[in-house]
From TrEMBL:
It is an enzyme of class 2 (transferase). One of its GO terms (molecular function) is glycosyltransferase activity. Keywords: Cell membrane, Glycosyltransferase, Membrane, Transferase, Transmembrane, Transmembrane helix. Its EC number is 2.4.-.-. The lineage of its organism: Bacteria, Bacillati, Actinomycetota, Actinomycetes, Micromonosporales. This is ArnT family glycosyltransferase.
Length: 539
């Protein structure tokens, strides 16, 4: 087989390419990209160690990365395949090369947030190039990245150590490789590998598969090596997934014991199972006690944080579906980005949710805004498009309730919370009190946000365990606490941990707090309230 079949020469500038792709956009504008990276570094880096409050899930991923490095395991507890492990393996790789380990930037979650900043900046470059290469418009690329950089939803969630952010980096990397249009098999393989890694970083990437597959099939349909490109893309997608399944099979944890699937994921009988966990995930819905509904989060959280992006992004997605069909040159990338946003939106509307599940919609809506703007200004010169971008963005920056300023409770204008509130100091004070006043032999029920802080640095608290493990993991529930308040010395309460205890039905912990507990430390700032409760027979 000749090399020309595997990697034929690219068409000359201005020639038509398959799948209705855009004309060659020319060299990347390095100065404009540098400006976008600077905006991203400031907007996401400023105050990121102090805001937002450390999240439970941030602690979970950092403690699992800790277990990879310190114990050679995927989790310090029973790993029940709640998520594929590539995300915290990446975190472990990042921490492993730092001289200070988990404390390189003060504490474990701060160290993870630095990686999130690097991932965000890499995603800024990838998004800029994806939009520019497909639309041929630098203004459209700048608009997409500007929204991506300064969206309050993005600033809030993309600072946090979340698998969603790592997943979207791999999705954007795959789109970037396809946007290069170099007609090489290795590029298609790389794009497929990126999507496969996204799947084993967080499984809900599967809802983006239709859009990515559509983009691949349409963009290379007229290439002579099309069959090879498509086949190797799918092969590369499946390799990481197959490796994950093989890992579970080697541990005899692929199928549930006796092939009895339990939609409640009650795995106390027999061993854990990858397929049973998938079965459980598929049977979760918005009415599940483990999550919140789409309508509730949309009204009470997401629209409050960033109504401009959500409204404009949803509108751009619908308009991209309509207008993309009318333009052969932009049809494929516009429809692909719209299909990805709709696919993930379908997931949000059907699943039991947590607040941060909205994070991938920020880059998806930003992509759709950029693509639609590129179509809208396709007959406008670059100067006119740039003026239009400025007219659109300046009001959103400076108007109250926009990206930068808001009204406080007194009706006064002030900068966004992300750039001024020092919330995480409360959690640092909580850890400091424990280390000065609680013996290391004490049995503590905690939230995951402080797990690594109590286990990694001296003095270490080997009997400090997350509340949900204290009620669900037999190794902790039956061997440490025995499901009884009498075996608990302290309950370290994080913000809104009480709500999690009630939703999870962790009644004996609530009994320990209410009937046998005494608050020995407490700190409150705004709607954030932390405490430490000493448990004893107070009756």
């Amino acid at each position: 087989m000749s090399a020309d079949v595997l990697a034929p020469k690219a068409k000359s500038k201005g020639a038509k390419s398959g799948g209705g792709t855009a004309a060659q956009p020319g060299k990347a504008p390095k100065l404009l990209i540098a400006v976008c990276l600077l905006i991203g570094a400031v907007s996401h880096g400023w105050n990121m160690f102090r805001y937002p409050l450390y999240l439970t899930d941030e602690g979970i991923y950092m403690e699992q990365a800790w277990s990879v490095l310190k114990e050679g395991k995927l989790s310090p507890y029973t790993y029940f395949y709640d998520h594929a492990p590539m995300g915290w393996l990446a975190l472990a790789g990042w921490v492993g090369v730092l001289p200070g380990g988990f404390g390189a930037f003060g504490n474990a979650i701060n160290t993870g947030r630095v990686l999130m900043l690097i991932v965000h900046l890499a995603s800024v470059f990838l998004m800029f190039e994806v939009v520019r290469r497909f639309t041929g418009s630098k203004s459209a690329a700048f608009l997409a990245v500007f929204v991506f950089n300064l969206s309050p939803l993005g600033v809030y969630y993309q600072r946090q150590v979340l698998l969603d952010n790592l997943m979207m980096f791999w999705i954007l990397f795959g789109l970037y490789l396809l946007a290069r249009k170099d007609r090489r098999i290795v590029t298609a393989m790389g794009a497929g590998a990126c999507f496969g890694v996204a799947l084993v970083t967080k499984e809900n990437a599967v809802f983006l598969l239709p859009g990515c597959a559509y983009l691949l099939h349409k963009s290379i349909r007229e290439q002579p090596n099309r069959r090879f490109g498509v086949s190797f893309w799918w092969f590369s997608v499946l390799v990481p997934v197959a490796a994950y399944l093989l890992f579970a099979q080697i541990k005899n944890e692929l199928f549930p014991e006796g092939f009895r699937f339990n939609p409640d994921n009650n795995q106390l009988q027999g061993h854990v199972s990858l397929l049973n966990t998938i079965w459980w995930q598929l049977h979760r819905n918005s009415n599940s006690s483990t999550g919140l509904s789409f309508t509730y989060l949309l009204q009470q959280s997401w629209l409050f944080k960033d109504r401009y992006l959500l409204i404009a992004g949803a509108a751009a997605t619908v308009l991209a579906l309509i207008s993309g069909r009318r333009n052969k040159r932009l049809r494929t990338p516009m429809l692909a980005c719209a299909i990805m946003a709709l696919g993930y939106g379908f997931y949000l509307s059907r699943s039991a949710l947590l607040d941060f599940y909205i994070a991938p919609m920020v880059p998806l809506f930003a992509l759709n805004l950029g693509m639609f703007f590129g179509w809208l200004t396709r007959r406008t010169n670059q100067g006119g498009a740039a003026v239009l971008v400025a007219c659109l963005l300046v009001p959103v920056l400076v108007m109250p309730g926009g990206f930068m300023v808001k009204y406080n409770a007194k009706g006064e204008l002030e900068f966004s919370d992300a750039y001024r509130l020092p919330l995480t100091r409360l959690q640092e004070q909580q850890v400091a009190w424990i280390k000065h006043n609680v013996p290391t032999s004490a049995r503590l029920i905690i939230d995951d946000d402080i797990w690594v802080a109590l286990h990694d640095s001296k003095p270490a608290y080997r009997y400090a365990h997350p509340h949900y493990k204290a009620t669900s993991d037999p190794d902790v529930r039956d061997k440490v606490f025995h499901s009884s308040w009498e075996n608990v010395d302290y309950v370290v309460m994080s913000n809104k941990m009480r709500d999690a205890l009630q939703r999870g039905g962790e009644t004996w912990i609530i009994e320990a707090i209410d009937q046998h507990g005494e608050t020995v430390w407490q700190a409150t700032r705004g709607d954030v309230s932390l405490s430490i409760v000493k448990i004893g027979n107070s009756s």
